[in-house]
Design brief:
The chain has 235 residues and is α/β, with parallel strands linked by helices. It is built from 7 helices and 9 strands; from the N terminus they run ααβαβαββββααβαββ. The strands form 3 sheets. Strands 2-1-5-6 form a 4-stranded mixed β-sheet, with helices on one face. Strands 8-7-9 form a 3-stranded parallel β-sheet, with no helix packed on it. It has a two-stranded antiparallel ribbon with strand order 3-4. It is globular and about 60 Å long.
């Protein structure tokens, strides 16, 4: 009986040791990330969030069966959003959107909204490579308007892993840039002149998407122009 007890306590101590190891590993992992400044927010960000009164939701479109690097990026985005939510007194929630990338119409609609996709090769259980579309982006929105936040940096001079590392490092900047845009009461209006044989909306789509990050973009005929238009583009 005494030998049985010794074996029992020995197994119990092993179990407790493994449990404490797993718990402490997660704890120190989170602390280490904060110590590195990877997920800790800057003072400027904290001050901005203190005055946030509007409720926002962040829809994360980076979803599905993700390669490890993209899974890390997704989880880093989740962690940043949680920090933003905590510092803003629970004004920023999030959800992960399951995207059906086999639906070409859905892919087209997301692309038109400004969500750029990337194609990656993934090994299935049998070791075969399959191509998968991913949308490394977040749509941050309130009840009135939205902004697309790109998650993935794509510097051709860097390796895939280096781009992912830079993407994680830039998350706070990207989210705060999106929040500041949504918090602005009114964006300056930039208008494309129409009705005189200029380029159509499809031909200026990329340029329009870039401008829309900082401006309200309209397409107006000459008779519709007024002093609210900050800049006029004739192309």
């Amino acid at each position: 009986m005494g030998q049985y007890k010794q074996h029992f306590y020995f197994i119990l101590w092993i179990g407790l040791g493994l449990l404490l190891y797993g718990t402490s590993e997660r704890f120190y992992y989170r602390v280490d990330l904060t110590a590195e400044g990877r997920y800790s927010l800057s003072e400027n960000t904290k001050q901005f969030l203190e005055h946030l009164t509007t409720d926002y939701e962040a829809d994360i479109y980076l979803s599905g069966e993700l390669p490890y690097g993209f899974y890390e990026l997704q989880q880093a985005a989740v962690e940043i959003i949680k920090e933003l939510d905590r510092e803003s007194n629970q004004h920023i929630s999030f959800s992960i959107v399951d995207v059906d990338t086999q639906n070409s119409e859905k892919v087209r609609q997301l692309s038109q909204r400004g969500l750029n996709y990337t194609s990656v090769n993934i090994k299935d259980k049998e070791g075969r490579l399959t191509q998968q579309l991913l949308f490394p982006a977040v749509v941050l929105h309130n009840k009135e308007k939205e902004v697309v936040i790109p998650l993935l940096k794509n510097n051709p001079a860097l390796s895939g892993q280096e781009n992912l590392n830079q993407s994680v490092a830039a998350l706070e900047y990207e989210f705060m840039n999106g929040l500041r845009m949504l918090e602005r009461k009114a964006l300056p209006i930039v208008a494309f002149l129409t009705g005189q044989g200029e380029l159509n909306a499809a031909q200026t789509l990329d340029f329009t998407q870039s401008l829309s990050e900082n401006y309200e973009v309209k397409r107006l005929e000459a008779k519709q122009l007024d002093d609210k238009v900050a800049a006029l583009i004739i192309a």
